[in-house]
């Protein structure tokens, strides 16, 4: 695991620090080590976040703190703004008002998103698709090795030279996960990544998600319309209603979790009743 | 009923594999029937010369060097005209597909010009260039321009926006985005344009050489008509067909090589 982590800094940063003091490089490297030794997740603070599309006020003031490494699921009616929130967190759209901070400066490679569609390049082999995920490190010497390792993590090492078109839906989504993981992100946002998969594939993908999250310790934010998926995977489930976080439910069940256990079923029931009562009111 | 059966065959039921020779059975049979019809006098040779006569005429012209010279001239005109018109069309397609401003500036004009059949310009072109080489090159280039332009533009505009967003998320620069996402995505459509353009290229050249030329295959055919050499006329037509087929095959080979990722080109 250690070998695959990024151990070098951007050249310019190194250079400027080297000018600063002769031993700066060593200090810098120690700090880097320290940072990597910690859990690799980043905390996330959202304050007064708003977003409208024209006259459609989608997010009307979201306040949220997510500790580093937490697995958060976001549920809510279709069209309530889950994807909008996720896209704002990932920096894909512009914020109208409020702020999102990760507690420190982040690199683009630190935050990754996975969508319902795998979005693989059909004209690139599986391995090359994973290499895309390296971002600015794509050209580095160990790009191949890192992509191969990410493919192994998602269990598709043997498909490295295939075209995406020959893979099944679940396999494509695993390649997309490998691409998101290859840069060792510290925040990983999922927008209904399993929405298009059949029930069995979905369960094995859920296990895979949980496993890589536990191995790598990134902060995970999962948007899903499947409440049982949310309680099975997340430490905490947020329910969005009318542009705000209406419920914040902690899931304390020990991992590995037993699917369909009474504890999870009870939580699922209460979250569903929140969602349904909101439905009655409108 | 049987037609429906043959359409709805499950994919696992393989039809017998067609190997390279089978496709030549029908053309060879046609030539054989044609030869027999001529030899028996069923078709008078003043109407249609026998294939053997056409071959003989071809052999004579080959020996005199006239055939090779005319084919070369036509081939040269076709390629240069195609290269000029194709690259300008490709450049405009790229520019208008990638830049809103460029599209606003030129697309409407180009769409209007497209409605003028380029062969209708022949009288004007003769007035401008005489029966010079440039007249033929101009007409071929103009004919080739539009299919390449339209299909390049269409290809670029229909690249999946989700893939473009993905490229941006993963930090691709504009250059990388073009090289790795937009261009490969537009390529299938560009090939459709190339195949269309090749057809138009030959058609334009035949017409232009027939009307205004002093060399080339079309000119050879017109000369032969003057001297009632019907075998040479038929020979020219057959050579045009052959060259058209060659150009099409070449583009297919190129397509197969560059689009090997495409499900339509994958061997099962
Ligand atoms: N780019 C956009 N332009 C205009 N309206 C949008 C855009 N994206 C989302 N919306 C609107 O914002 C609302 C929330 O959408 P979204 O976040 O996708 O919901 P969901 O919770 O189903 O993911 C919807 O009403 C949708 O129509
Ligand atoms: Mg959504």
UniProtKB/TrEMBL annotation, chain A:
Q: Which CDD domains match?
A: ABC_NrtD_SsuB_transporters
* UniProt-listed SUPFAM superfamilies: P-loop containing nucleoside triphosphate hydrolases (SSF52540)
Q: Report the GO molecular function annotations.
A: ATP binding; ATP hydrolysis activity
Q: Which PROSITE patterns match?
A: ABC_TRANSPORTER_1 (PS00211), ABC_TRANSPORTER_2 (PS50893)
**Residue limits of the ABC transporter domain?**
44-267
A biological process (GO) of this protein is:
alkanesulfonate transmembrane transport
Instruction: List keywords of the entry alphabetically.
Output: ATP-binding, Cell inner membrane, Cell membrane, Membrane, Nucleotide-binding, Translocase, Transport
Taxonomically, which superkingdom?
Bacteria
Keyword presence, Transport: yes
Q: Which family does it belong to?
A: Belongs to the ABC transporter superfamily.
What is the documented function of this protein?
Involved in beta-(1-->2)glucan export. Transmembrane domains (TMD) form a pore in the inner membrane and the ATP-binding domain (NBD) is responsible for energy generation.
Name the UniProt record assigns to this protein:
Sulfonate transport system ATP-binding protein
Q: Source taxonomy lineage?
A: Bacteria, Pseudomonadati, Pseudomonadota, Alphaproteobacteria, Hyphomicrobiales
From TrEMBL, chain B:
Domain ABC transmembrane type-1: residue ranges: 67-248
Question: Which protein is depicted?
Answer: Sulfonate transport system permease protein
What Pfam families does UniProt report for this protein, alphabetically?
BPD_transp_1
Where does the protein end up?
Cell membrane
The protein's matches in InterPro entries, at most eight in alphabetical order, are given as: MetI-like (IPR000515), MetI-like_sf (IPR035906)
Family statement: Belongs to the binding-protein-dependent transport system permease family.
- Coiled coil start-end: none
Membrane-crossing ranges are 21-43, 71-94, 115-131, 137-156, 177-194, 200-220, 227-247
Q: Which CDD domains match?
A: TM_PBP2 (cd06261)
Chief subcellular location equals: membrane
Q: Which biological process, per GO, is one annotated for this protein?
A: alkanesulfonate transmembrane transport
Q: Give the PROSITE patterns listed for this entry.
A: ABC_TM1
Instruction: Quote the function comment for this protein.
Output: Probably part of an ABC transporter complex. Probably responsible for the translocation of the substrate across the membrane.
Extract the PANTHER family matched here: ALIPHATIC SULFONATES TRANSPORT PERMEASE PROTEIN SSUC-RELATED, ALKANE SULFONATE ABC TRANSPORTER-RELATED, MEMBRANE SUBUNIT
GO CC terms in record: plasma membrane
Q: Keywords assigned by UniProt?
A: Cell membrane, Membrane, Transmembrane, Transmembrane helix, Transport
* Membrane topology category: Multi-pass membrane protein
